[in-house]
Amino acid sequence: MEVVLEFIQNATVWVRAYIYDSDGNLADPTTSTKLTLTDPDGTKQVDDAAMTPDETGVYSYYYNTDSDSVKGWWSGEVWATDGTKKSTDSFSFKLKAGL
């Protein structure tokens, strides 16, 4: 699978999360899978947003950028809460000027 790390303004950024149980199998958390996206200026553009389930253990979120979206490296965090246990994963992507 190709992992895209650079997008241009006005693009849709697709974030996909894979949630595994302690045996390494895809599994749905009992509570939630959520996302935060922070722009290069440190402003949260998406805060605590629910991700959409695609299939067991696989979740997606689509973020639409526009021509005013801040260029540079964005950071993201996805977390899944299962009962009282929370697991977190971080990622980043670069947003460049549109054509």
What does this 3D model show about the protein?
With 99 residues, this protein is mostly beta strands. The chain has a single domain (6-96), classed as Immunoglobulin-like. The protein is built from no helices and eight strands. The chain has strands at 6-8, 12-18, 32-38, 44-50, 52-55, 58-64, 72-82, 85-96. A five-stranded mixed β-sheet has the order 1-8-7-3-4, with no helix packed on it. A hairpin with a 2-residue loop joins strand 7 and strand 8. It is elongated and about 45 Å long.
What are the defining features of this structure?
single chain, 99 residues, Immunoglobulin-like, three-stranded antiparallel beta sheet, elongated
- Main structural class: mainly beta
Inertia-based shape: elongated
Broad CATH class: Mainly Beta
Number of domains: 1
The fourth-level CATH homologous superfamily is Macroglobulin (MG2) domain
Total DSSP helices: 0
Mean pLDDT reading: 91
CATH topology name? Immunoglobulin-like
**Overall strand count:** 8
Report how far apart the termini are. 26 Å
Low-confidence stretches: none
In the CATH hierarchy, what is the architecture at level 2?
Sandwich
- Describe the sheet with the most strands: 5 strands, mixed
Strand composition percent: over 45%
Sequence of strands across the biggest β-sheet: 1-8-7-3-4
Query: What is the chain-wise order of helices and strands?
Result: EEEEEEEE
User: Approximately how much helix is present in the residues?
Assistant: under 10%
Radius of gyration: 14 Å
